[in-house]
Amino acid sequence: MTPSPPPPPVIRPLWVALGFVLTGLGFVGLILPGLPGTVWFVLAAGAFARGNPKWEAWLLSRPVVGGLVRDFREGRGMPLRAKWLACTCIALAVAWSLTRIPVLAGQVAWVLVALAGILYITLWIPTRRP
């Protein structure tokens, strides 16, 4: 696969700004259950790669974050414990917030979104064994 050409110099600062926003969302996702942090970090690394490779290298050098992004890029998947934790957090977040949705159709849609996330994690993301 050939790498895409670099964006015009005028757009690069926008990619870097987007990378910082996505990195912030990633850190919030590490703290809050129900918000996946890894997805945001992977997107941030992609944005930084288009804007300024120095910031991509900075993100990849972070102790926890860098490993998550590298594992995703190399197709290694998630450890089994992380999969259990992610699925449990999704289930707990949905169960906690379900009573706050007043319409039955909204509740059903919310449960379906949660089930789709759990199915994605369990079926499509490879399990990395120690």
TrEMBL record:
Residue ranges crossing the lipid bilayer per the database entry: 15-48, 80-98, 104-125
GO cellular component, one term: plasma membrane
Signal sequence coordinates: none
Keyword terms, alphabetized: Membrane, Transmembrane, Transmembrane helix
Keyword S-adenosyl-L-methionine: no
Coiled coil region boundaries: none
Keyword Membrane: yes
Superkingdom per UniProt: Bacteria
UniProt-listed PANTHER family: INNER MEMBRANE PROTEIN YBAN
Name assigned to this protein: DUF454 domain-containing protein
Taxonomic source organism: Deinococcus budaensis
